[in-house]
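To illustrate the input format used throughout this study, we show a single complete record. The first block contains the structure-token representation of the backbone; no residue identities are included at this stage. The design step must infer an amino acid for every position from geometry alone.
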């Protein structure tokens, strides 16, 4: 136990193998309490944390969690459960993720103690150019205009990534993993308060024709919380994916529908059937770096993993571990490390197949120690550093709104999945085919491809390139590579700060998962400091350090976390959203 506590080418029919619909050990991770939490979004109180002896799931919607737990009870692996959870989330939480989007996953194999990173990031069409998000005068398009255009959609990668991971680590038949989602789509599910709020939101995608059509009842009114929503088209799409795997999405009629839809105006795409069919997910060793007595593993670039690792590397050279969440100096240090990490991430990280990412230099202990030395007693200007191997690149102009979803799973054999999945913004591009929303992931590229001197931004658009992401699912191990914890969050560019918060809270401040995810958020990037629900003394102390917190718009995370204990597992879900942790 963790020291933290002391294919078939032709798939079988979707319904052929249907699945059935706290005293904790004394431990330093449970030693401290925090009174600062945020109110849940649900009208009725639902216990979001849980403990379990054998296996556990934490995800953003109880229906998705139930589907994952049922798979684990049936003898499925953590990857099997991830497939089932994603299929349900795409139906009940379509504002955040779905089969039309992408994902990053870190997988821990308990037998070999190896961690593998799976990259299901979308890619730009072969016809994309660096001026994709510039108007005829060479000026940046308004973000809302870009999002609603066909140009915002990349080739979806989440299902291809899950198919690859299932071939590597699945135990149950692929086709059986879609049964719960298929049933919910066919017979209907109850619209949650969060989904209802997104339907009624002022997001431009919510008002897009496809979204309005889907979310409008026969009587002309919009769906609200408590209504039953059916999606026969989604059920049919799942049938095809269950039968043919990822090729059921990336080739054939679904692929044709995607291409046709994004070719429609405004701002039509150049996406082709060949772009769809040629998509390949990636897998390889996770990016694992030491932090204190632990090993923290994230995906490689172009994910948000390098940014989180830079921030942890800076914090390694501070005294934040000797402080706690009630100490304003701890939050000041946290914020300054965040600013330094964002500055480096924004400058240097892009798709490593297209740009030189100086990851060795960025994570060099001497470089990180020097960056930590830049943290003074008061906030001052922050810029990117000059790590060894740094290429000449231009400034970044990436806009990345909040969205996305996170999943953590531990199966009965001790294998672990930490997966962040997204369609990018709320309801992606607002365009639908086959009962699901298409992503607007290409708006994660820098809208300005070059600076005034002609130096190209690391995250500039290019054909076949994957946009930089903030998604950074994490798994924490001991030096002997025993499982300690898994965590992650949605939240657009703020993901880096959210994930850093939960890792510091778990590893440095020894909080329980629920305490850690419920802490106030502090997102510090450039000269901006946004936060939610901090006690006034901390806000006053930070303001005195030239760090006034903006609370006009509370940052919204969706953190999930699971930690190992001598008696099994303890999980927590962010009270800002509708997620829960459950197990057996």
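Output of the design step:
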């Amino acid at each position: 136990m963790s020291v933290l506590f002391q294919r078939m080418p032709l798939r079988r029919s979707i319904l052929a193998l249907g699945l059935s619909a706290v005293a904790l050990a004394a431990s330093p991770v449970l030693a401290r309490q925090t009174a600062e939490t945020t109110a849940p979004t649900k009208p009725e109180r639902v216990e979001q944390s849980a403990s379990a002896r054998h296996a556990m799931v934490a995800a953003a919607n109880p229906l998705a969690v139930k589907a994952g737990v049922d798979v684990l009870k049936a003898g499925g692996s953590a990857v099997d459960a991830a497939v089932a959870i994603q299929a349900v989330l795409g139906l009940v939480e379509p504002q955040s993720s779905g089969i039309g989007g992408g994902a990053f996953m870190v997988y821990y194999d308990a037998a070999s103690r190896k961690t593998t990173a799976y990259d299901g990031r979308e890619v730009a069409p072969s016809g994309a150019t660096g001026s994709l998000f510039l108007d005829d005068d060479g000026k940046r398009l308004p973000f809302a205009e870009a999002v609603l255009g066909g140009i915002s959609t990349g080739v979806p990668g989440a299902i291809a990534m899950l198919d690859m991971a299932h071939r590597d680590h699945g135990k149950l038949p692929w086709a059986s993993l879609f049964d719960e989602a298929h049933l919910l789509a066919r017979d209907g599910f109850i619209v949650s308060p969060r989904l209802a709020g997104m339907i009624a939101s002022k997001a431009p995608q919510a008002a897009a024709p496809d979204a309005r059509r889907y979310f409008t009842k026969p009587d002309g009114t919009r769906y609200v919380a408590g209504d039953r929503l059916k999606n026969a088209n989604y059920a049919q799409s799942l049938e095809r994916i269950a039968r043919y795997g990822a090729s059921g999405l990336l080739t054939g009629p679904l692929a044709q529908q995607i291409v046709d839809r994004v070719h429609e105006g405004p701002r039509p795409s150049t996406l082709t059937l060949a772009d769809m069919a040629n998509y390949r997910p990636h897998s390889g060793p996770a990016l694992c770096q030491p932090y204190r007595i632990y090993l923290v593993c994230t995906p490689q670039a172009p994910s948000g993993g390098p940014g989180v690792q830079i921030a942890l590397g800076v914090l390694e050279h501070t005294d934040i571990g000797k402080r706690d969440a009630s100490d304003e100096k701890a939050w000041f240090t946290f914020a300054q490390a965040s600013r330094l990490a964002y500055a480096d991430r924004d400058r240097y990280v892009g798709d490593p197949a297209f740009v030189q990412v100086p990851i060795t230099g960025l994570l060099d202990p001497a470089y990180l120690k020097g960056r930590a030395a830049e943290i003074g007693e008061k906030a001052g200007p922050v810029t990117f550093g000059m790590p060894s191997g740094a290429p000449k690149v231009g400034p970044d102009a990436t806009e990345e709104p909040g969205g996305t979803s996170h999943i953590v799973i531990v199966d009965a054999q001790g294998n672990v999945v930490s997966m962040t999945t997204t369609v990018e913004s709320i309801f992606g591009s607002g365009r639908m085919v086959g009962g699901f929303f298409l992503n607007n992931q290409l708006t994660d590229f820098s809208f300005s491809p070059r600076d005034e001197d002609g130096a190209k931004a690391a995250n500039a658009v290019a054909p076949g390139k994957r946009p930089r992401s903030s998604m950074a699912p994490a798994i924490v191990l001991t030096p002997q590579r025993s499982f300690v914890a898994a965590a992650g969050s949605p939240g657009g560019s703020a993901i880096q700060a959210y994930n850093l918060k939960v890792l510091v809270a778990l590893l440095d401040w020894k909080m329980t998962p629920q305490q850690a995810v419920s802490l106030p958020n502090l997102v510090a990037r450039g000269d901006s400091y946004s936060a939610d629900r901090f006690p006034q003394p901390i806000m006053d102390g930070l303001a005195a350090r030239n760090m006034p917190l903006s609370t006009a718009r509370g940052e919204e995370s969706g953190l999930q976390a699971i930690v190992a204990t001598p008696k099994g597992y303890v999980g927590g879900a962010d009270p800002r959203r509708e997620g829960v942790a459950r197990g057996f």
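Structural context for interpreting the output: The first strand starts at residue 50 and ends at 52. DSSP finds 18 helices and 20 strands in the chain.
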